[in-house]
Amino acid sequence: MNLRQVVRSFVLSLLIATVAARAETGAEGWLRYAQLPALAAALYENAPRQVYVCTRTSLAENAASELMRGMHSLLGRQMTLTSKLPDSGAFLLGTSDELHAILPGLAPPALPSSESFSISTETVSGHHFWIIAGGSDRAELYGVFRILEQIAQQHPLSAVTETPASSIRWVNQWDNLDGSIERGYAGRSIFFDAGHVRSDLSRVADYGRLLASVGINGVTVNNVNSDLRTLEPEMIQELARVADALRPWGVRMSLSVDLSSPQVVGHLATFDPLDPSVAAWWQSKVNEIYKAIPDFGGFVIKADSEGRVGPSKYGRTPAEAANCVARALKPHGGLVLYRGFVYNNHLDWQDLKADRARAGYDNFQALDGKFEANVVIQIKHGPIDFQVREPVSPLFAALQRTSQAIELQVTQEYTGQQRHMVFLVPMWKTALDTDLRAQNRATPVKEIVEGKSFHQPLGGFVGVANVGLDANWLHHPMAMANLYGFGKLAWNPDLTTEQIVRTWTRLTFGNDPNVVSTIDDLQSNSWHAYEQYTGPLGIGTLTNILGVHYGPGIESAERNGWGQWFRGDSQGIGMDRTVATGTGYIGQYPPELARVYESLTECPDDLLLFMHHVPYTHVLHDGKTVAQYTYDAHYAGAATAATYPQRWQRLKGLIDPERYDQILKLFTYQAGHAVVWRDAVDQWLQRISGIPDGHGRVGHFPGRMEAESMQADGYRVVEADPWESASQGKAVVCERPMGCSLTTVLDRPAATYSIAAEYFDLRNGVSHFQLRLNGKSIAQWLADDKLPPAVVDTNLDGSTSTRFTVHGVSLKPGDVLTLEGIPDGEEPAPVDYVELQPEP
Ligand code: GCW
User: Fold this and answer.
1) Which residues are 823's β-sheet partners?
2) Which of 3, 45, 64, 133 is the most buried (most CB within 10 A)?
3) Which phi and psi (to 5°) does residue 122 adopt?
4) Whose Cα sits closest to atom 1 in ligand 1?
C-alpha cells in the first residue's frame, strides 16, 4: 500500500466504525450530523470554537445550541457559548444591526427580508469570525442549518446570502383528534391521541427542528376535514402546548377549521358569513386564540367539498366566507388559506360534458380580486387529486388579483403510500416549471405562487406531510427525500432535482460516492417507473379510488359521481376535454397552452389520455399505438422496480444494517407489487381493447403455475375482485385450521430457478406458508406484513397481493413442488400463483 491507500483505508475504517457505532432508526432524518472522517474534518480545523449570540431570544439561543450540537457531532469538537464578545475568533449570530453595533468594523450584507440570512467570514484585529447574520432570529437559525449542511457534505464554507422565494412555506397534517391520520402511512399522530393533545410532545419539537432545517415556517396540525371540537375553548388551551413546542424552531402553528364552527361551537343560529353575529363570533374566537398563541399562523379552510359544509348553504361565495374569517385574523397578522379543492362528487357520469377537472376554475375564477389581502387560495397542483400525472391546474393562471399557494402532497396517497419508493421532486418540478403563458408571457407556476407573476402580496407552498409516530417519520426511509425536497423547493423552486437529491442522500446516508450515486439514480427515476407500471399517458393512477387508493382497482374510477373517469370502452380510452368536442376544460388554460393541449398532434403523450379520447390504435409520437405503449410501459416500469433489490444489495456494508435491511425489504416488496400492477393493468387493457400485446407477454406467463390449476388439498378456488387483481382472475383460499396445500410435478429443464409465491397478505390474520421441494422444506414465511390499507381489508385484491421469492433453487423434471398454507384468524392463507424463473 502506498501512503494514499493507507490514508484511504484509515479513513474508510474510521467511517465504518462511525457507521457501525450508531443504531440508525431514521429518527434524525437528514439531521444525522454523522461524524466526519478525520481527513474531511481537517477542512474545518480553523473554524471557531466559541459561539456568541447578540440577542438572547429563545430562537437565537436555539440556533446557537443547534450549531454547537452539530459541530460537536460532525467534528467531535467541544464548543462553548460565550456571554461576552470574545477577543479570539468566534461564530457570531445576530441581525445585521446587532452585529454592526458590536463590531462596527463589520459590514454584513443588507438582507432583503426578515427571513433572509447571510454567512460570511471576517477577520477583525487578527481574529477570525464566522458571521451568521439574519433578518430575524428565525433566519439566524436558517443560517446555522445551512452551515451544518455544508459541513456534513464536506463542502468548504463559502459566503452566501439567501432569501426564501415566498413567505408561506407550510406543511399540513391531516391528523384527527383521535390520533388517526387521514392518508397517513407512518403510524399515529404525533400531536393527538384519544381526543386530546398528547401529553408527550417531544416528537413535535423534533418535527419542528426537521422542518426548520429546510426552511418550513408553518404547520397546520389538524385534518382539513376538521373536527368540530377544534375551536372549543379547552381544545385551544391544549393546542397552545403544540404551538409552544414548535415555537423554538420558528415554526408557527395554524389550524384547519370547519365553517360551521359559529353554529356548532358558538351555538349561533347560523354560520352565514354575511351575518354580523357570525363575523363577531369569528372575531372573538380569533382573539381568544391569539391570547393563548400569540404567533398563531391562521386557518386552513376546506368548505363545500367532499361532504364539508360551506357558504353555498346560504348562497354565499367562497370569497364571502374567506373574507369573513380573514377580517377577524387581520389585526393579528393571521392568514386564511382557503382551499381551491371545491368540487361536486356527485357528478353525472353519463353526461359527457361533466368534468371534475373544471371545478377549481369554475368555482374561483369569477372571484378573482374579491378576496381580502390576507386570504390565499391553496390550490392542489393538478385539477383532479394528486394523481401520478396531471397537468397543472388552470386556476393558477386565472387568479391574477389573488394570492395563491400551491398544495403538493408529500404523503404518498396515490403514489405508493410509502411502500413504494417514489421520489416526487421531479413531478413537482414538472408542475412548478410549467409555463402557463398567462397574458401571452412567461408565467411559470413557481413564479405565480411566489406572487411574482401578478405582483401579489403573498404566496407560497403547502405540503401535505402526514408524518406519524413511526421512528423514521414516514415509514420508508427513501420517502424522507420528499419531505426534504418539499422544504427545499418551497425555499427555492429553482433548485434542480439533482441538487436536492444529492444533498439529501449525503446528509442521510453519508458521502461515499458509491452510495451517493446509487441512491441518487434510484430516487431520480422512481417517479417515472411508478408512472409506467401504474397509469401512464395521463390516464390517472388507476388505483382503487373507492377504497384505499393503493393497489390497482382500475374501473373503480368509472361510472360513479367522483369524476375521476378515463372513459375506457371497447373502442377507445381517455377523457375528451377539448373545446371542440369535449368538456371544454382545455379552454380554461391561457390560449397559447390551450392550443397545444387541444391539438391531438401537439398534446404531449404523457397527458394524452387526460386531454383526449382516442382509439387504442392511436399512434403516439414514438410510433407505438396507445395499447402497445401501455403494455410496454408496464413491463418497463416493473422491470425497473425489479432492479431495486439488486442495486441496493451492492451497498451492503456501506449503509448501517438497520436501514439497509429495512430498505431491502421494502424494495423486494415493491418489485413484487410492481408485477401485480403490471399484470392487472395489462390484463384489463387486453380484455377491454381486444388488442393483444404485440410481444405476446400479457396473459401468457410461461413460468407461472396458477394456484387454481395446481393439485389442491383443502384449498378452494375463489374469484378475485376486481378480477384483474389476481392472475387469470382467480385465487385459492384455505378454510381448514390444520392448513391446505398446492402441489405440482415440475417438467421444466434442469436449471437454477427463483420460485415466487404470490399470496394475499390481509391484516386480520398471520397465515403461515411453507414451500417444499420433494417433501423437504426450502422456505417458510409469515403473511404478517402491515400493508396498506391501514384499515382491515378482507379482499383478495391488488392492495393485498404480495410476493415471496426464494432464489437459487436447483430444479429438475419430476421434482415435486408443494406450497403449504396454514390460515390464521380471518386470513385464509390465500394464494394466487407460483412462478418459476430461470436464474443465471
Ligand atoms: O384526495 C382526497 C383525499 C382525502 C382528502 C381530500 C382533500 C383530507 O382522498 O382523504 O381529505 O383529498 O384533499 O381534502
Assistant:
1) none
2) 133
3) -140, 145
4) 385
* 413 is annotated as an active-site residue: yes
Q: Positive or negative CA dihedral for 364, 365, 370, 371?
A: positive
Nearest CA to ligand 1 atom 11: 225
Ligand 1 cavity residues, CB under 6 Å: 174, 182-183, 223-225, 302, 306, 341, 385
Predicted pLDDT at 798:
92
Q: How many CB atoms lie within 10 A of CB 84?
A: 7
> Comparing C-alpha atoms, which of 14, 70, 3, 2 is closest to residue 38?
14
List, in order, residues 6 or more apart from 84 with CB less than 8 Å away.
Answer: 52
Residue of 185, 189, 224, 406 with the most ligand 1 atoms within 8 Å of its CB, for mutation: 224
Low-confidence stretches of the chain (pLDDT < 50) are: 1-21
- Residues 142, 67: contact at Cβ < 8 Å? no
Is this structure's pTM higher than 0.70?
yes
Q: What is the pLDDT of residues 37-86, one digit of tens each?
A: 999 999 999 899 999 999 889 999 999 999 999 999 999 999 999 988 88
* Residue in 306, 543, 562 to alter for ligand 1 test, most ligand atoms within 8 A of Cβ: 306
Kindly report the length of the chain: 840
Query: Pairing state of beta strands 375-380 and 403-409?
Result: parallel
pLDDT of res. 85:
86
Question: Do residues 611 and 597 touch, judged by C-beta distance below 8 A?
Answer: yes
| Catalytic annotation present for 45 | no
Please name every residue paired with 521 in a beta bridge, in sequence order, or none if there are none.
none
**Cell (9 digits) for 638:** 416493473
Contact indicator for 406, 340 with CB cutoff of 8 Å: no
Helix (H, G, I), strand (E, B) or coil at 376: strand
Distance CA 123, CA 116 (A): 23
Residues contacting 725, CB < 8 A, separation 6+: 551, 552, 553, 676, 680, 796, 797, 798, 801
The closest residue, in CA terms, to atom 12 on ligand 1 is 385
Which ligand 1 atom is at minimum distance from the Cα of 225?
Answer: 8
679 catalytically annotated: no
Pocket perturbation via mutation, ligand 1, pick of 223, 225, 393 by most ligand atoms within 8 A of CB: 225
Instruction: Supply the residue whose CA is at minimum distance from atom 14 of ligand 1.
Output: 224
At residue 301, what are phi and psi to the nearest 5 degrees?
-125, 120
Cα(548) to centroid(ligand 1), Å: 11
Reduce the secondary structure of 20-55 to three states and give it as a string: HHCCCCCCCCCCCCCCCCHHHHHHHCCCCCEEEECC
What pLDDT, on a 0 to 100 scale, did the predictor assign at position 789? 60
Residue 58 dihedral angles phi and psi, to the nearest 5°: -65, -30
- Output Rg (C-alpha) for the chain, integer angstroms: 28
The number of beta carbons lying within 10 Å of the beta carbon of residue 307 is 8
- What do you get for the CA distance between the two ends of the chain, in Å? 36
HSE-CB at 378 with a 13 A cutoff on CA atoms is 27
How many other C-beta atoms lie within 10 A of the C-beta of residue 1? 8
Contact (CB, 8 A) for 373 and 429: no
